[in-house]
Design brief:
The protein has a 10-stranded mixed β-sheet with strand order 7-6-5-8-9-10-11-12-14-13. It has a 4-stranded antiparallel β-sheet with strand order 2-1-3-4, with no helix packed on it. Strand 6, helix 6 and strand 7 form a beta-alpha-beta unit. The protein has a domain of 96 residues. The chain is globular and about 60 Å long. It is of the alpha/beta class.
Length: 299
């Protein structure tokens, strides 16, 4: 076995270990295998790579990093073995675009409960690394990777060539109609759930989307479409690039206030029924209201 293949195996096991030690999450064998097999350096552009160094963080530490001050050590390398640590790697430093910290994304992928045969929409795929991991986890399912930046979409398409079940679309993920899907992962910050994503999520489907303030800081929300309605719960903190077309300045300010006061902890659902704002609404948005209530809702 070649040295880099051994490095990938250790990397995959380290991600499994981090999720278990910090969050008591048991990463599936399919996801661990994907981390061990897929060459991350293939999805980062040419070397040298800019490493956004940071230690492995617990959920509480992630929250502190998102909403407080933190120090980040950046460094460059041409050695592909260096990207097989729990670090973010810049894919466009000038715009702040990164291949995110693996343990964080692994947490989201675990929460999405990926299953063989799932049809997945990945919004904001960047250069395609996490798209490739998703494809491996849902094989022989289908992954539609949407990227607004045409140049990134072309690179992602090239990087994912030969990955079965993947299709890259150069489009705005807020507007792109994927048709019915089982899973949606959004890799760009929005201020509210987009109705089209909710409309396309099948019963039993899972959605992960980052709700962020004007500084790109916020929380990842997990939404599950059940027969009784849309359950919702915030699962982790994050800092992420904005989603073009998915932001409302007024809602951004309201999000910042809700994050600051800690009331986000009691969010339990998304209400899609028509109703006036009341004390049960955490973030009132017509047709996609984040609520403290549990579905089903009364008349």
């Amino acid at each position: 076995m070649e040295k880099l293949e051994q490095t990938r195996l250790r990397y995959a096991e380290s991600i499994r270990g981090l999720l278990w030690r910090h969050h008591r999450l048991r990463l599936s064998d399919r996801l661990v295998s994907a981390f061990a097999r897929i060459p991350r350096e293939r999805f980062l552009g040419p070397a040298p790579w800019l490493i956004r160094g940071m230690p492995a963080l617990t959920v509480r530490q992630r929250m502190a990093r998102c909403f407080g001050k933190h120090h980040q050590r950046d460094w460059t390398t041409c050695d592909p073995s260096h990207v097989y640590h729990d670090v973010a790697v810049a894919i466009d430093p000038e715009r702040g675009l990164n291949s995110g910290q693996p343990s964080g994304v692994a947490t989201w992928l675990h929460s999405l409960e990926l299953k063989s045969g799932d049809r997945v929409l990945h919004v904001g795929c960047g250069l395609g690394y996490y798209t490739a991991l998703i494809a491996a986890a849902v094989a022989p399912g289908e992954v539609i990777a949407v990227e607004l930046d045409a140049a990134l979409a072309r690179e992602a398409s090239s990087n994912l060539e030969g990955v079965n079940g993947c299709r890259v679309v150069a489009a705005n993920g807020v507007e792109y109609d994927s048709g019915p899907v089982d899973v949606i992962l959004v890799n760009a910050g929005v201020t509210h759930p987009q109705p089209l994503w909710l409309d396309n999520l099948r019963v039993g489907g899972r959605l992960m989307l980052p709700l962020t303030n004007e500084q790109g800081k916020g929380l990842m929300l997990k939404v599950t479409h059940e027969s009784s309605g849309w359950k919702a719960q915030f699962v982790s903190g994050l800092i992420i690039f904005d989603c073009v077309g998915g932001r409302d300045p007024h809602l951004s300010r309201r999000l910042a206030a809700g994050f600051s006061e800690g009331s986000w902890r009691s969010v339990q659902s998304i209400r899609r029924d028509s109703h006036d704002p009341d004390s049960s609404c955490w973030l009132h948005v017509s047709g996609a209201c984040l609520s403290h209530q549990i579905p089903p809702f009364g008349d």
